Structure formats: C-alpha cells, structure tokens
Fold this sequence. Notes:
Blueprint (H helix, E strand, L loop, with lengths): L9 H15 L10 H7 L4 H13 L3 E5 L2 E4 L4 H25 L2 H12 L9 H17 L4 H22 L6 H18 L3 H13 L2 H13 L3
Amino acid sequence: xxxxxxxxxxxxxxxxxxxDQILTGSLPAGSRLAQYDLAxxxxxxxxxxxxxxxxxxxxxxxxxxxxxDVRVSTMTADExxxxxxxxxxxxxxxxALAATRRTDDDITALRAAVDQLLPVTRQxxxxxxxxxxxxxxxxxxxxxxxxxxxxxDDLWDKSDRYRRLGLxxxxxxxxxxxxxxxxxxxxxxxxxxxxxxxxxxxxxxxxNSLTATAISALEVREGHP
Length: 225
C-alpha cells in the first residue's frame, strides 16, 4: 500500500491502492472485490473503501451491482479500441508540440529516460513497462500543454490493463525491439525540432503498440467478424 500521506484521506488512499491493483492486474478483470477483507488489509472501515469504489465506478474500472457485489470491470475490444483511437490522435500532437517547445531541461530528461528503456517483452516485464511509461510522460511534459498532459496520463492509466494483455501475447520480440529503436529516433526528431516527422513516427508507433495487439486478441475472444 502507498505510504501514508497526511494530506490524503483514507478514501483517497483506498482509491489509489485499488486503482493501482486493478491497472496492474493484481485484481484481475472480472474478479469480485471482497470489500471487508480489503478494508481490513488497508486498515480502515468499510465506509472510505466504498467511497473509493464509487470513484472507481465513475471511471469505469469497477462495476457495482449492489454494495456486496462489486467486480473489476471486464476488458473489451470496444473499450480498447476507443482508448487506442484517442491515443492515435493525441500522442502525435504531444510529439509535435514537444519538438517545437522543448527546453534544454526537457532534452536532458528525454535523453536520460530513453537511456533507461528496455524492450517491452515478457522477458523484461514490469521493469520495461515502467521505463516505457516514464519515457512517454517525459515527452508529454515537453509539450508544455497541461491539459494534453493530463489527458494522456489518464489514457495511459486506462490502457495499462490492455497493454499488459498485449505483453502476454506471443507476437515475437522483433516488433518490441523495433519499438525501442523508435523511441531513440523520436528523441532525435524532438531535439532537432522536426515536428511533422516526430508526429508521424509517434502515430506509427502507437499504431503498432501493445494495445493494438490486445484489440485483435480481444476481438477473436469475443467472436468479432
């Protein structure tokens, strides 16, 4: 559980912990939340936990049927595609803005982040996913558009379950190694101020992402034509 923070309520802490467990897959899609057990593990009463559940429900991460029947929302091809479509539009915008607005500090941060990247494959697992997110967050910040940054951070969170599903699929390591090279190329384009090329590369990068892989798998699972 995250360390206690005097500025956070128990409801905030429960929300942050449950949200993290859902997004990382510790609480799998479709699983029932044992609310009293969870409250005990978080050292709190049931009331702040239920407040946290209401927040998670508003984000679509849990489904509430009754106070006693709360489940982690299932993953669907439709939701994955919607998240994918929005990222396909917004990520290139962030890359283009970063190429025109990046500061010397942004360049330093981008180079440090890209140096920490690993191929996002099952071999490297969570460490690679974490480094991947840090890189994209660093690029988003270089856009210096707070509204866009917040939107993309939220999309990234909601895409995490699908990203992990894609990681578990067997497409081979070559596409993920290509992704790693694309990140280095993105940094070069942003540093050089080549906004159009940065946007195009980011578009292609998202089009071949783990979420895109997950969409195809979910469509097969759901029997889409």
